[in-house]
Amino acid sequence: MNSDRVKIGIPGLDDMLGGGLIKNSICSIIGTYGTGKTTFSLEFVWEGLKKKENIIYISLEEREGRILTYMEQKGWDVKPYLNKSLFVIKLDPTDFNLANNRIKNELPKLIEEVKATRVVIDPISLFEDLFTTDSERRQEMFRFIEGLRDKNCTIMLTSETHRDNVFSSRHGLIEYLSDTVILLRYVRPSDLSAVHLALEVVKMRMSLHSREIKPYELQQDQVLVYSEANVF
């Protein structure tokens, strides 16, 4: 039912998801560089702000000022929301103890304090990089994700693809922990005339969803997903 859905704010994509994400679920946006992972997460943030929701945006890559500039370049006036209903936090992934503690221990508390209903971690793959072994990474990520499921918020995680597999996240883990997985990638026609962007909803628990691959465009002020079109 649409009443139980949380819209990302990208009409064609929300249509592919059956009206949006399941409320209080975890969604991963996976793609290589230049496919718009941060742009998709910012659309998710702006949609929530328009609905008067409280939102936390954790950035492990871009500075707070850059994130706000990206939103302003889209024509969104975010200043009235900053530190009132929008909380942007920049973490340094090279400082293991600080980043690890703030994400694992402080984020759940902050979600409760500000009553956040949407949370973004961009990119989660830099947090995954903090762990030195696959077994430690699996254990810590499972505990972290399961802890967030009790916080009454819808979560969006972004991840780079694996360097040898464009269909997998960097560590091949987050897609198994997420309820919804959206894959962004390049499509190169056989004649090499142009490079196009395409997405697919690889997985969505508890919901029917489109399994078709659809083209999309990253425009200055919006993301256009052509849910009625076919990929070339």
Topology:
Layout: E1 5-6, H1 11-16, E2 21-22, E3 26-31, H2 37-50, E4 55-59, H3 64-73, E5 86-90, H4 96-114, E6 118-122, H5 124-128, H6 134-148, E7 154-162, E8 165-169, H7 174-177, E9 180-187, E10 196-204, E11 214-218, E12 223-225
Parallel strand pairs: 3-7, 3-9, 4-5, 4-6, 6-7
Antiparallel strand pairs: 1-2, 7-8, 9-10, 10-11, 11-12
Task: Walk me through this protein's architecture.
The structure is a single chain. This protein is of the alpha/beta class. The chain has one domain (2-225): 3-Layer(aba) Sandwich (Rossmann fold), CATH 3.40.50. 31% of the residues lie in helices and 28% in strands. Strands 3, 4, 5, 6, 7, 8, 9, 10, 11 and 12 form a ten-stranded mixed sheet that branches. It has a two-stranded antiparallel ribbon with strand order 1-2. Strand 11 and strand 12 form a beta hairpin. The chain is globular and about 50 Å long. The mean pLDDT is 90.
* Form type: globular
**Count of the separate structural domains:** 1
Distance between the termini: 32 Å
CATH fold topology: Rossmann fold
InterPro entries: Circ_KaiC_arc (IPR022420), KaiC-like_dom (IPR014774), KaiC_dom (IPR010624), P-loop_NTPase (IPR027417)
Pfam family, one: ATPase
GO molecular function: ATP binding
Keywords: ATP-binding, Nucleotide-binding
